Amino acid sequence: MTPGPIDDKSLPTPDPASVQIVRSYGPGRFLISEREWREPVLVTPSATAPLPIARAEDITPETLAFLKTLPVPTELLVVGCGAKAVFVPPAQRALLKAAGLGLEVVDTGSACRIYNVLVAEGRRVAAALIPL
């Protein structure tokens, strides 16, 4: 289940002209806004950064430390696992939940689409994307 819309009107919202959108993806690459990436990335509405993981199972609160530097807290993390979704162990899910993150684990193509839709809705979402 995904969280509802943002209720706190005091939180800043990203400028639509500067929102990070996944424009395309393919084997070994992403085009996010106007920049091409050839590595796993962590995408948020306001910024994109390299993600120091090789597999979804490597995600921890420490690998997501970039999210803590942002002015708006993230409520949902969409994880794109590559060509197909993988099982994220319950202990890992519990760590991420304790860090305040809902988790949706899907294949990378689905993650890109889900992220873009949720950003368009003004949601506090991030996507951890592993290339195909």
Q: How much of the sequence is in beta strands?
A: 25-35%
Q: So how many helices?
A: 2
Q: For the report, how would you describe the main beta sheet?
A: 5 strands, mixed
**What's the CATH H-level superfamily name of the domain at 40-129?**
MTH938-like
- Structural class, by secondary structure, is alpha/beta
- Within the CATH hierarchy, at the fold level, what is the topology of the domain at 40-129? Hypothetical Protein Mth938, Chain: A
CATH class of the domain at 40-129, anyone? Alpha Beta
- Helical percentage: 10-25%
| Rg value | 14 Å
Arithmetic mean of pLDDT: 88
Could you give a quick summary of the protein structure above?
The protein is an alpha/beta fold and 132 residues long. It has 2 helices and 8 strands.
Describe the structure.
The protein is of the alpha/beta class and 132 residues long. It is 17% helix and 25% strand. The protein has a domain of 90 residues: Hypothetical Protein Mth938, Chain: A (3-Layer(aba) Sandwich), CATH 3.40.1230. Strand 1 and strand 2 form a beta hairpin. The longest helix has 13 residues. The protein starts with 21 loop residues before the first strand and ends with a strand. The N terminus is likely disordered.
